[in-house]
Design goal:
Strand content: 15-25%
InterPro entries: ATP-grasp
Order of helices and strands: EHHHHEEEEEHEHHEEHEEHEEEHHHEEH
GO molecular function: ATP binding; metal ion binding
Radius of gyration: 22 Å
Protein name: ATP-grasp domain-containing protein
Oligomer: single chain
Keywords: ATP-binding, Nucleotide-binding
Length: about 400
Amino acid sequence: MTYALTPMHLEPILSMAALARTPDEKIPELITQIISRPGNANLYMNQFQLFSIFGNKSFALDMQSLALQEGTIYRIEGSKSPSIRLLALMAPGDATDNAPLDYLIENTDIQLDLLYLIPGQPLPAALPEHDVMIVAAGESGKNRAVLQTLDPLIECWPRPVLNPAKYILNCSRDNVYQKLKDLPGLTIPPTRRVSRQALVALSNEHEAPHAPYTVRPLDSQAGYGLAKIDSAAALAAYLTASNAQEFYTSQFIDYRSKDGLYRKVRIALIDGAPYVSHLAISEHWIVHYGSARMSEHAERRQEEAQFMRDFDTGFAQRHRNALRRVSERLKLDYVVIDCAETMGGDLLIFEADNRGWVHATDPVERYPYKQATMQKLFAAFRAMLLSAMQATNSTAPQ
């Protein structure tokens, strides 16, 4: 299979990273700017980006559908004189369905083009010229059809390929458990995929075997639909409130620190090396950076700042062997893991995939310590792209 790579002049669409910085009062002005730009495809895709950020998911997806009827290749607004041209293979869907790469390349010399893959449709006859390609589609039930068709398409790809689809497919919660469960120094909750019928049967029992455990709908993200089950009655109530047909169940592991708070760390493994993205601290066992209200707690931000400063000699050093083995098992060039430490000092893994939100959009006046840490992470991502380019150039026929 051969591919025609062509230099393309593409009118860029707005970056989600830039949109995330936009204050609410500037939205009308931004919409006016979007409407004034040429091209229906970009108009629709810009609206998808905008309403994904500002909370109208249904309308955003409608706009994306209209955009993809017009075209499947889009360029993210960024460097006008790029040193690296990156092509990302995307799946249709909302902001959680693909790796949010525009946050990683913001204010760099990397040009990011997005190629959306439509199930049942061939690749375009002409593809944008690029230096490196990365599979950005994340593992999920709705993306599986796209991912399963990718590897035959990219066997003869004319440029280096990062994050092959066959490894992304291993990032389902149950597969990650199977991949990592026997690693020394690491704890990962036993996780299995179950049907609604199986959970209904459990809810009819007098006792709840294996409780406490957690349950969540199959493709849910950001804690949506996640609950801790302590009894058969609690499971029955959960199922009454959910219309999902398939779920993941996991053993609940209490990872509270001595002060009673829960701490969850987000790490990007880039070319096998760990880079911290955030430390979230919360009273609740479901820890997400937003719900942890870090902005309201100066002492938690101070702890996060110290954690980031000491990460290489602290957390990353304590768990260096476990993190290295995780990278070796998952075989992804870029993967984001959410993790913590158990009371016994093990690395506790919650999930691992390519879609975790890694960014530098928190207000600098409240989080001044984050910028240097995130720039280090972004530089590592750029270095990974350069390394892939140079490895290909060194093996090219002279």
